[in-house]
Amino acid sequence: MTLAIRHVRVTPIAFRDPPLLNAAGIHEPWALRSIIEIETACGRVGINETYGDLPMLDALAKAAPALQGLSPWDLNTMEDRVAALVSPAKTGSEFLGEQISLAPGTHVSKNVAKVISAFEVAMLDLQGQLAGAPIVDLLGGAARDAVPFSAYLFFKHAEHIDKTRTEYLPDPWGEGITPEQMVAQARRMIDQYGFKSIKLKAGALPPEQEVAAMLALAQAFPGAPLRIDPNANWTVATSLKVVEQLRGVLEYYEDPAPGLDGMAAVARESDVPLATNMVVTDYKEFADNVRLGCPVRIVLSDHHYWGGLRTTQQLACLCQTFDMGLSMHSNSHLGISLTAMTHLAASVPHLAYACDTHYPWQDDEVVQGGRLKFEDGSLRVPRTPGLGVQIDPEALARLHDNYQHCGIRNRDDLGQMRKYDPTFTGKQPRY
Ligand SMILES: O=C([O-])C(=O)C[C@H](O)[C@@H](O)C(=O)[O-]
Ligand SMILES: [Mg+2]
User: Fold this and answer.
1) Is 7 annotated as a binding residue?
2) Residues with CB under 6 A from ligand 1
3) Per the UniProt record, which EC number(s) apply here (predicted)?
4) Who contacts 149 (Cβ-Cβ below 8 Å, separation ≥6)?
5) In sequence order, which residues have a C-beta less than 8 Å from that of residue 380 and are 6 or more positions away?
6) Residue 261 CB-density burial (10 A; 0-12 exposed, 13-18 middle, 19+ buried)
7) Which residues have CB under 8 Å from 343's CB, separation 6+?
8) Which end of the chain is more exposed for a tag (fewer CB within 10 A), N or C?
9) pTM for this one?
């Protein structure tokens, strides 16, 4: 059968990442991803982008034989085979020790869902090419022609501490610490991309400074929906104090306090809707939230660790059933991930918020034609078959070369922060 999958290629890549601050520490100079290419016997190739840390590369290597001889249409068999080959291994907290669990995608406990997602999108790309239809049509059709994203702001240093990396030029964003600098950061991002909503990554500086930045943003961008996300780095008491200081400012309040219990304690005292990508990250946690009466009102989905585009559509149905909202989380990524997010978000009528994206923080690309273009803060949903983007082989080789030379094999925001402050523990909640 010429349609049968005969080869899976996984290429780890690295691209420059600015010194962005968060609750766990600070971004390293290079972010890792991996590019998946699934090739059929007749030479057709479906592509995708996912995490690039070593445990993920190991899981992908373990699971690749599952695809041998499979039709690109047979997603259910792929899922069964991957689940059989990739054990859930340790839980996220065992893996991360005391470090804050910022990115559920880096947890090995999510390996099965992450690998299924990695293969599913590439197989959907193949399906779309075979059917002559964009992925969004395979998902039921577009509920919108363009998907809005938000301006995702970070407190940041002007330069990385690693001065020996001569190949790393300072990024154009400059320092982002004071309220004035954060307004300038937002202005630059909005001028360049047209975003209408603003998210501030918090949990990095003392809360008073972060509140001051939010109030400055609210004043500078009246009417713009605003969110703040300290990644559970605040106690319940601090979370309540902050939400009071930001009264009337927030569209939603993302992961202020640790754990579902912490979130429930905040929800009991505040009427601002709580959102999460930390405590509802799979169906079991979804059920836990429902059992508690839904203290979390908005789930930030992420197909990379929820198990793919179709699973995220199911998540959307569940959210609708329980009268919960749906938004979209991101990590440092390039255009293939962004395109998959766009197809998915376009296919989910219930996803009514502007999605998160780290895209403006990256300056490189792996797809042909270079950086994707936002219009008025949104990305148009591709109408060409499959994902609608193709790999640029030269760019892939260059980004793989970065990977070979960057020396980073696992994201380590905590270790990077210890270069600045050896006493930094990363223990949560810090404030
Ligand atoms: O919404 C979130 O929690 C994130 O985007 C998690 C990320 O890891 C973010 O904190 C980052 O990139 O530093
Ligand atoms: Mg978050």
Assistant:
1) no
2) 20, 22, 102-103, 201, 229, 231, 277, 329-332, 356
3) 4.2.1.40
4) 193, 195, 354, 355, 356, 357, 359, 374, 377, 378, 379
5) 145, 146
6) middle
7) 134, 135, 136, 139, 309, 381, 382, 387, 388
8) N
9) 0.96
48 is an annotated ligand-binding site residue? no
So which residues are the catalytic ones?
Answer: 201, 329
Answer whether 14's CB lies under 8 Å from 167's CB.
no
pLDDT surpassing 70 at residue 295: yes
The two tokens of residue 223 are 């009417």
What residues are paired with 229 via a beta bridge?
201
- From atom 13 of ligand 1, which residue's Cα is the shortest distance away? 22
Does the annotation list 303 as a binding residue?
Answer: no
Give the integer Cα–Cα distance in Å for 162 and 159: 9
Residues 350-368 as b/e (b if ≥16 CB within 10 A, e otherwise) read ebebbbbbbbbbbebbbbe
Ligand nearest to the CA of 22: 1
pLDDT in tens, 333-385: 999 999 999 999 999 999 999 999 999 999 999 999 999 999 999 999 999 99
**102, amino acid identity:** L
pLDDT tens profile 79-126: 999 999 997 654 444 334 344 456 556 677 899 999 999 999 999 999
Q: Up-side HSE of residue 1: CA atoms within 13 Å toward CB?
A: 10
Q: Which of 320, 309, 380 is nearest to 347 (CA)?
A: 309
| pLDDT tens digit sequence for 382-414 | 999 999 999 999 999 999 999 999 999 999 999
Complex ipTM value = 0.99
Residue 17 has pLDDT above 80, yes or no: yes
Look up residue 420 and give its two tokens: 């600045």
Ligand approaching nearest to the C-alpha of 31: 1
Could you count the other beta carbons within 10 Å of the beta carbon of residue 373? 9
Residues with CB under 5 A from ligand 2 (ion): 229, 254, 277
Q: Collapse the DSSP code of 33 into the 3-class scheme (helix H, G, I; strand E, B; otherwise coil) and give the result.
A: strand
Question: How far is 51 from 55, CA to CA, in rounded Å?
Answer: 9
Task: List domains and CATH numbers for the chain.
Answer: 5-133+394-405 (3.30.390.10), 137-390 (3.20.20.120)
Distance CA 55, CA 88 (A): 11
Q: Which residues touch 257 (CB under 8 Å, ≥6 apart)?
A: 232, 234, 235, 236, 238, 239, 263, 265, 266, 429
